[in-house]
Amino acid sequence: MKNKIIQNISQYIQSEFAQETSGHDWWHIYRVWKMSQKLARGEKTDKLVLEVSALLHDIADWKFNDGDEKAGSKKARKLLDNYNISKDKIDQICHIIDNISYKGAKVKNKIESLEGKIVQDADRLDAMGAIGIARAFHYGGYKGRSIYDPEVRPVLHENKKAYLDSTAPTLNHFYEKLFLLKDMMNTEKAKLIAQKRHKYMVKFVIELKKECNI
Ligand code: ADP
Ligand code: NI
User: Fold this and answer.
1) Ligand 1 centre from 127 Cα, in Å?
2) What pLDDT does 164 receive?
3) pTM
4) Nearest to 97 by CA among 65, 66, 72
5) 31 C-alpha to center of ligand 2: Å?
6) CA-CA distance, 100 to 73, in Å (whole number)?
7) Which residues form ligand 1's pocket by a CB distance below 6 Å?
8) Which residue's CA is the nearest one to ligand 1's atom 1?
9) How much is the pLDDT for 148?
């Protein structure tokens, strides 16, 4: 029953995200789903809440919905009402979807449940390492941003509006978010993976700057 619901939702999301080109494609969702399962191994979590939250975490990103932070949970609730899932579990899933996203270096994190912490770690790990580098430049291209401009300094954003309005080159995103992620992991397992991915990104940025500053 639980597995059937998860399988159904994964098929729905796979078809919904087939055409997505901003870095939240099906394969991002798939990696977050699988990484969430890996991080949850040996922990006491609710399988349905964990996996459905992972599958639906980007269902309607606030960045693409005029800053409406509830856009995701509204869409998720409509979908989940078609399944035999308790209201309590739907509420837990919706809370995770509304609060998972990074909204600026100085904006407080509101995730509290273990399932939420795990899915948030899995989502953030996918913004790090080799895949994180690829996604950052992919997103930058999608947004028409330049790769590197040494004259534009990185900024630690105070609020989500400033973070959202930024038009800075993609390399700045490493200082504004990606290099901060290793210290923002919730779970011990994710911290270890994050350290490895962090080192890889640092090496990449050093090399890129070396090649650019001729
Ligand atoms: P989250 O899943 O935490 O909401 P985002 O939606 O912010 O993550 O980001 C999706 C992907 O796009 C990530 O790999 C992220 O690093 C990248 N990204 C987001 N904002 C920028 C930006 N300003 N410049 C480059 N890449 C970005
Ligand atoms: Ni995501």
Assistant:
1) 7
2) 73
3) 0.91
4) 72
5) 9
6) 11
7) 23, 61, 101-102, 123, 127, 132, 135-136, 139-140, 170, 173, 178
8) 101
9) 93
- Of 40, 57, 190, 45, give the one whose Cα is nearest residue 125: 190
Q: Which helix (H) or strand (E) is 16 found in, with range? A: helix 2-16
Q: What is the 3-state secondary structure (H, E, C) of 155-200?
A: CCCCCHHHHHHCCCCHHHHHHHCHHHHHHCCCCHHHHHHHHHHHHH
The pLDDT assigned to 130 comes to 98
User: In whole angstroms, what is the distance from residue 42 CA to residue 64 CA?
Assistant: 36
Helices (H) and strands (E) in the chain, counts: 10, 0
**What tens digit of pLDDT does each residue of 118-139 get?**
999 999 999 999 999 999 999 9
* Distance in Å, CA 72 to ligand 2 centroid: 12
pLDDT at residue number 64: 60
Provide the pLDDT for residue 214.
Answer: 65
Whole-number Å distance, alpha carbon 207 to ligand 2 midpoint, is 27
- In angstroms, rounded to a whole number, what is the distance separating the alpha carbons of residues 150 and 171? 9
Say how many Å lie between the CA of residue 151 and the centre of ligand 2: 30
Residues of the chain scoring pLDDT < 50: none
- Give pLDDT, residue 65: 64
Q: Which of 98, 139, 182 has most ligand 1 atoms within 8 Å of its beta carbon, as the pocket-test mutant?
A: 139
Closest C-alpha residue for ligand 1 atom 27 = 136
Rounded-to-integer distance, Cα 214 and Cα 128, Å: 27
> Are residues 62 and 71 in contact, defined by beta-carbon separation less than 8 angstroms?
yes
Q: What is the pLDDT of residue 105?
A: 67
